[in-house]
TrEMBL record:
Source species of the chain: Rugosimonospora africana
Ranges of residues in domain Methyltransferase FkbM: 53-187
Coiled-coil region: none
NCBIfam families: fkbM_fam
Domain of life: Bacteria
Entry-linked InterPro entries: FkbM_mtfrase, SAM-dependent_MTase, SAM-dependent_MTases_sf
Organism taxonomic ancestry: Bacteria, Bacillati, Actinomycetota, Actinomycetes, Micromonosporales
A Pfam family assignment: Methyltransf_21
This protein's name: Methyltransferase FkbM domain-containing protein
Length: 261
């Protein structure tokens, strides 16, 4: 079961949620997309698993993980997104919401907020500079900042346990998130963009040091792996470097042990 449609409709109609209206329209109310997402993530997630969603935004992945029978720790620093998440998952005791950024250290971090498009708000000071003037990123403005709480993957593991899978989508701050992880998980994903070519290499270097050994990717928002087989870290790095700018973004999927069947 997904979030109740009446809750989503109420959020769409709430003037305070106007900045999230595009995301609500894109990510909710599309059964075929939901089914494709569930089929895709079922490769990594089994009923009863613990999953971390780092950068939960408004929770479409959280909803998928719940449909697969997982318990989910959803980490999101933006107050507007947190308000939406609380409304959407209010009655689902499988979801634990952590209002914080995730990075290399606990404490606080400065969040660069894109008020018109909160989905690309970021704790990375580099990311807005990389987007400035880049094709496909025209008109994106990070117009304000806020100091928010920061946690780490290690701290989350200490509290909630070791997840079977972690989704990391934090707009150019993925390397900092991985710096706060000190041992391998069975599987995780991290987002990449073609406006920051060095970030995936830093992530892959960190993951290799932690013991991750197999890598694949999904391009843009596609719910399928783009490569027929799993690559080593250096081969994945070369593949990412060769992607055209127009690819824009995607997610790298990383394994430290074979997929369960």
């Amino acid at each position: 079961m997904g979030p109740h449609i009446a809750v989503i409709d109420a959020l769409r109609d709430d003037p305070a949620m106007a900045a999230l209206r595009r995301s609500l329209d894109s990510y909710y109310g599309h059964p075929e997309r939901d089914a494709a997402m569930d089929e895709f993530y079922a490769q990594f997630i089994r009923p009863g698993d613990l999953v971390f969603d780092i950068g939960a935004h408004i929770g479409d992945r959280v909803a998928s993980f719940c449909r697969l029978g997982a318990r989910v720790v959803a980490v999101e620093p933006q107050p507007l997104c947190v308000r939406a998440l609380r409304s959407i998952f209010l009655e689902d005791d499988r979801v634990t919401l952590v209002e914080a950024a995730c990075g290399a250290d606990t404490g606080t971090v400065r969040l660069h907020i894109n008020s018109a498009n909160p989905t690309v708000s970021t704790a990375s000071s580099r990311f807005p500079d990389s987007a400035h003037g880049a094709p496909g990123w025209e008109g994106e403005i990070w117009d304000t900042t806020a100091t928010v709480a920061s946690t780490t993957l290690n701290a989350l593991i200490d509290i909630h346990g070791v997840p079977a899978f972690a989704k990391i989508d934090v707009e150019g701050y993925e390397d900092a998130v991985l710096a706060g992880l000190h041992h391998a998980l069975p599987a995780l994903s991290f987002e990449f963009t073609t406006i920051e070519r060095l970030l995936p290499q830093r992530c892959l270097d960190r993951l290799g040091a932690l013991g991750f050994s197999e890598f694949n990717l999904a391009l843009r928002d596609e719910m399928s792996l783009a490569l027929p087989g799993w690559l080593r870290a250096d081969d994945m790095a070369a593949h990412l470097r060769a992607l055209p700018h127009e690819t824009n973004s995607g997610d790298v999927y990383c394994l430290s042990q074979p997929l369960r069947h």
